[in-house]
Specification:
The chain is mainly β. The chain has helices spanning 8-12, 33-37, 51-54, 316-325, 410-415, and strands at 66-74, 77-86, 90-98, 104-114, 119-135, 152-168, 173-191, 194-198, 205-209, 212-233, 236-243, 246-255, 267-276, 279-289, 292-301, 308-310, 312-313, 329-331, 337-348, 351-360, 378-389, 392-403, 406-408, 425-441. The protein is 7% helix and 56% strand.
Length: 442
Amino acid sequence: MKKGKLFLCVFVSLLFISSMSLANGLNLNSLGTRALSMGGAFVGLADDFSAIFWNPAGIAQFDKSYFGFYGSDLIPRGSYKLDTVIPSKGSFTLVDAESKTKHYLTGMGAYYHPLTENLVAGIGIYAPSGLGVEWDGADFALITNNNPSIKWMSKVGVITISPAIAYKINDQISIGATLNMNYGMFDLKMYAESAVFPINVPPYFTEVDLGQYEESMNGWGIGATFGVLVKPNEMFSLGVTVRTPSKIKFEGDAKLPNLSFLDLTSKSDLDREITWPLWIAAGVAVKPMKDLTVTADVQFTQWSKLDVIETDYKDTFWKLFMAESGKNKMPLHWEDAFQIRFGAEYLLKNMAFRAGYYRDPAPGPERTLNALLPNFDFNVITVGFGYKMDDLQIDLGFEYLMGKERTVDLLKAAMDPEYESAMPGIHNMAIPVPNISVSYKF
């Protein structure tokens, strides 16, 4: 492990730069149980209360007042293993850890009201991005100067408030738009490793274990979503959605308690601007028979805009120290990512059976991989069940994200500057997501 590799936290903070969805770079691309159960392939259908997220043009289909609630529980299950080779003794395990079982609750509430026959207004409050992970510090003791009390955790949440309007131009074409007011929250705790400081006596420098690092931030950003839905007939519909970039200015503070032993400031305020990237999606929905609907989406996130994240530390010492070490700038090297999604729904009287699949490629390379960020190629399967009683709809769903194992070579992490932000070792992650929705038209 490199000395002075102080701020992996700058890297982890990009958890906020999501296009509002779970998998693609820590996004939650599955809001609403029905949409989630159909693999998140919902842009070309968008005919329930989650349309405010998927395609606001779908709101124009509602001819009654409509309320819906969605809740889900993200339960990340990660593992991390780091081995090294000791001459004449062979391989030795430094870390063999499994993440703590934690529950990260997310959800959505939305209400719609027809203003005229063709014009519908609505408002939604939802958590488009939310995840985290926590590890037992004792498992990392051998790489934290034998300090088992060091805390390792990240917790991310974004709450979006979206007023919406949709207009049915005719029976075939609808358009819609939302204003997205995004409030982001982030907490991080991790090991800061060590750094060299000058002293007045030979050898005129000393290495200091910086110990625990903590960071807490929040901030606001504004964006918009635009959608078009075309239904040339009862068997086919096509949708396109564009979610604009949104720049969020996070403000908060960072703490390094061990700096107080050097009579240095142990806390600093900080600012960090991160642009929430462009998201574009297109989808189709086909009814090959009366009770069967098949959907498919292609979704694009412009992660390549996230190349280097810069942090502005307000304290004079922190600002100089971070600039000198280069840790006020963090290369991310994320790449644009496409998701291809498929889903199906079969109706049997007042019941619905659903299933879906999508593949979600990791936007981040191995050279910026960190145990606090579940950044994996995910294969995702979804299933669900719905029950309708008059205007009341109850849906249950389950999403399971299976991460592909990723390995960061220890020698590269130690010697290659391109791997400055990486945690060497073997990383794995799986995320089960049970969820429920209740909606009512009146």
